[in-house]
């Protein structure tokens, strides 16, 4: 019962985004500190590059590009689900305390765990993931009311409160520490893509492979939940159960992204929002668009960020925020 | 036989009980109307029976089983409800909204099957909304929108239909149209209709069974002749009503009324 022209439009938008992502990936592969000229990219991809070229492409650039795209996708999908659940277009994984929760966990781990280079990097995402999850769980417990279905507004307010409190804790934690350690945490918080190795891709990819189809499977329920509770219950949606499952999905996706990229805000807010303004609010249509947009946005941000200042670049989270903050203002002013 | 009944049900928000220890049976394949003054608990009762709000204690029984123990999707195949409708529908088209009524029959990714399309078509047809199929619900007038929501409830293809004030927002002609549609569904397809109505004369005209509530308890229930009486209306609404006979239907009707003056002075 959706107008056929809208479905056609969505297909076109999807194709365009796919092309844009491929183009950006190509550009991103070719720029960076070490030279890898554009005419050498394809031969290197197919195994005909020199050792140096292969190393730059396969060990440095490609993992980073893939991780960035995947994290952007996960954040966008998480934001899309949260916006649907809370019936609030300004909802974002950061709002339910994911970033700050993971941040505190990373800070504690980094400051008090003896750094042994072997296991440390691989434990860090696990720690971030657990931190994000515990925070979300606490927010859920605090917004729980007996015999009542989960109240989205209450959850947002408690989430914002937790976010602020955890940020405060983090400042206390790191203010007493030495500079070198603080600098890593500060960069982590700013959303510096740091998990740039193939194992990290394996850590985030399964979540997406499971939850993208799952979100699309739940799209119709999300549509109905977006109306209001009585309507959803009336047509037989198990509101309580569905909310919990979808919330879990959103948290898992955001936590998996944050664990390899650090705290990145705004992608989860912007991508679903732009997608909705392109193809309308139906979840089955805008979710795929939002996913591609999220991946693309974060890739652009990281490509700009890592090449803007030598040698370390600007964290992608900051570049995204530079784009995202004005967009957020525009949203607020428009309403 | 009663498929649907409540047993000693208490409903309330926190400490404050709105419906107290209420036992009521809904006659099968009949039109039942709940009447009562504002805040008497009639909408609350409807919401508790349809599991939209939880009740404190007691049970709602459908087909011999507590509804809180039944699968909510299966329940949605047995009973549909026209609830308080949301203000905005996010640009959904009429056809889409009505298709949500088919949710209990869908599995997997929610593709509509032939039977679903037939039911949606039928629901749009009988509510006179088929011409708006591709229009956004938000662009319709209040009355048209109300009929679209009724169409959604009808698309659920249930034997029991609950309606919370189905005639609000509608002009006189459209009010009658909706009520006659419900009557037709009841007569031709033997569906059980339970609704909250404000208009006593409409209640008397269309209902086989009326439940008059006051402060969450039944004052009187039965056919219209036994409920639409001077004494019951005095008790329920605090009005001094003049009851006559509808010259066309022969049903009792409230011709005119005053507030109970003497009680006010006390």
Protein architecture, described:
The complex is a heterodimer of chains A (335) and B (266). Chain A has 335 residues and is mainly alpha-helical. In chain A, 78% of the residues lie in helices and 0% in strands. The longest helix of chain A is centred in the N-terminal third of the chain and has 36 residues, at 51-86. The relative contact order of chain A is 0.17. Chain B is of the alpha/beta class and 266 residues long. Chain B has 10 helices and 12 strands. Chain B has helices at residues 42-49, 72-78, 94-99, 114-126, 142-155, 172-189, 200-206, 224-227, 230-237, 261-265, and strands spanning 4-13, 16-26, 31-36, 57-62, 65-66, 79-82, 160-164, 192-196, 209-214, 217-222, 239-245, 252-259. The longest helix of chain B is centred in the last third of the chain and has 18 residues, at 172-189. Chain B is globular and about 60 Å long. The mean pLDDT of chain B is 90. The interface between A and B is medium-sized, with 27 and 41 residues. Chain A: GO terms for molecular function: transmembrane transporter activity. Chain A: Keywords: Cell membrane, Membrane, Transmembrane, Transmembrane helix, Transport.
């Amino acid at each position: 019962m959706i107008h056929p022209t809208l479905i056609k439009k969505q297909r076109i938008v999807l194709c365009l985004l796919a092309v844009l992502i491929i183009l950006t990936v190509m550009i991103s592969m070719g720029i960076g500190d070490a030279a890898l000229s554009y005419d050498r990219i394809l031969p290197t991809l197919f195994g005909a590059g020199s050792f140096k070229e292969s190393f730059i492409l396969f060990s440095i650039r490609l993992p980073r590009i893939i991780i960035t795209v995947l994290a952007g996708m996960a954040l966008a999908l998480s934001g899309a689900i949260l916006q649907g659940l809370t019936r609030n277009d300004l909802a974002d994984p950061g709002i339910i305390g994911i970033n700050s929760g993971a941040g505190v966990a990373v800070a504690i781990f980094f400051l008090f765990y003896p750094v042994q280079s072997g296991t440390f990097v691989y434990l860090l995402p696990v720690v971030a993931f657990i931190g994000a999850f515990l925070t979300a769980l606490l927010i859920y417990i605090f917004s729980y009311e007996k015999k009542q279905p989960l109240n989205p507004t209450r959850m947002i307010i408690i989430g914002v409160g937790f976010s602020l409190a955890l940020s405060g804790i983090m400042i206390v934690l790191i203010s007493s520490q030495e500079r070198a350690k603080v600098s890593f945490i500060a960069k982590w918080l700013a959303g510096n893509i740091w998990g740039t190795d193939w194992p990290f891709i394996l850590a985030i990819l399964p979540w997406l492979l499971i939850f993208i189809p799952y979100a699309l499977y739940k799209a119709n329920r999300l549509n109905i939940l977006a109306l209001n509770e009585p309507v959803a219950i009336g047509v037989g949606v198990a509101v309580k159960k569905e909310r919990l499952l979808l919330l879990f999905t959103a948290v898992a996706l955001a936590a998996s992204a944050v664990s390899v990229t650090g705290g990145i805000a705004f992608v989860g807010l912007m991508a679903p929002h732009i997608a909705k303004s392109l193809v309308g609010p139906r979840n089955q249509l805008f979710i795929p668009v939002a996913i591609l947009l999220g991946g693309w946005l974060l890739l652009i941000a990281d490509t700009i960020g890592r090449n803007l200042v030598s040698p370390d670049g600007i964290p992608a989270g900051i570049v995204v925020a530079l784009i995202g903050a004005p967009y957020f203002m525009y949203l607020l002013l428009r309403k | 036989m009663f498929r649907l009944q409540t047993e000693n049900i208490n409903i309330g928000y926190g400490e404050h009980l709105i419906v107290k220890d209420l036992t009521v049976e809904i006659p099968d394949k009949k039109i039942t109307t709940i009447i009562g003054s504002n805040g008497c608990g009639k909408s609350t009762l409807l919401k508790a029976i349809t599991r939209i709000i939880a009740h404190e204690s007691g049970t709602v029984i459908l087909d011999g089983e507590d509804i809180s123990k039944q699968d909510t999707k299966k329940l949605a195949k047995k009973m549909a409800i026209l609830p308080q409708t949301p203000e905005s529908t996010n640009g959904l088209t009429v056809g889409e909204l009505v298709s949500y009524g088919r949710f209990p029959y869908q599995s997997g990714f929610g593709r509509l099957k032939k039977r679903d399309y037939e039911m949606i078509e039928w629901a749009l047809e009988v509510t006179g909304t088929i011409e708006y199929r591709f229009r956004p619900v938000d662009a319709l007038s209040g009355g048209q929108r109300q009929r679209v929501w009724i169409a959604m409830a009808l698309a659920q293809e249930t034997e029991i239909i609950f309606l919370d004030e189905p005639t609000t927002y509608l002009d006189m002609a459209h009010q009658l149209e909706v009520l006659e549609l419900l009557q037709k569904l009841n007569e031709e397809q033997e569906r059980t209709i339970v609704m909250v109505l404000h208009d006593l004369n409409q209640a008397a005209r269309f209902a086989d069974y009326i439940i008059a509530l006051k402060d969450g308890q039944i004052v009187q229930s039965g056919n219209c002749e036994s409920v639409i009486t001077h004494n019951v209306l005095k008790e329920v609404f605090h009005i001094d009503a003049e009851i006559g006979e509808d010259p066309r239907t022969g049903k009792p009707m409230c011709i005119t009324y005053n507030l109970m003056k003497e009680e006010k002075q006390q």
